[in-house]
Amino acid sequence: MPVLVTASQLELHGDDLADWGFRPGAKEEGTCHLRGRMLSTANEVKTGIWECTPGAFDVLNRPNVESIVIIKGKVKLTDLSTGAEKVLGAGDCAVLEFGSSVKWEILETTRKFFVVAPVQTSSL
Question: Which end of the chain is more exposed for a tag (fewer CB within 10 A), N or C?
Answer without folding.
Answer: C
